[in-house]
Design goal:
This protein has a single domain, classed as Alpha-Beta Plaits (2-Layer Sandwich). About 35% of the residues lie in helices and about 30% in strands. Helix 1 packs antiparallel against helix 3. The radius of gyration is 14 Å and the shape is globular. About 15% of the residues are buried.
Length: about 110
């Protein structure tokens, strides 16, 4: 389960995708598959959420990890490289960015 709090000792990764509306559902399906079948089973995985805008042109994937190293190990795996090629084929652009939570309001 994700924890959005500034004092949590974890790594947040938000990946944004720019996508054509016609490819949106297929990309959502591949993201869900990657998360369910691979990412969620990796060491250090805490939780993930996938968001899509109402125009179906942008997707955000929010994932939390126990550490930056856990995320980077998953990212470098052969399995993730296969998924990254699928993401590239289905999106106009995507970029994973590592974040620290500065503040969270309940």
């Amino acid at each position: 389960m994700q924890k959005i709090q500034s004092d949590a000792d974890l790594q947040t990764v938000i990946t944004t995708f720019e996508v054509a509306p016609t490819a949106c559902q297929e990309l959502l399906d591949v993201l869900q598959e990657a998360c369910t079948d691979f990412v969620s089973k990796q060491a250090g995985f805490i939780g993930a959420a996938i968001h899509v805008n109402d125009a179906r042109t942008r997707i955000a994937n929010y994932v939390q990890w126990q550490s930056r190293d856990d995320f980077q190990q998953m990212l470098r795996s052969d399995e993730m490289q296969v998924y990254a090629k699928k993401f590239t084929a289905l999106s106009k652009d995507f970029q994973p960015v590592l974040y620290d939570v500065v503040t969270a309001t309940k």
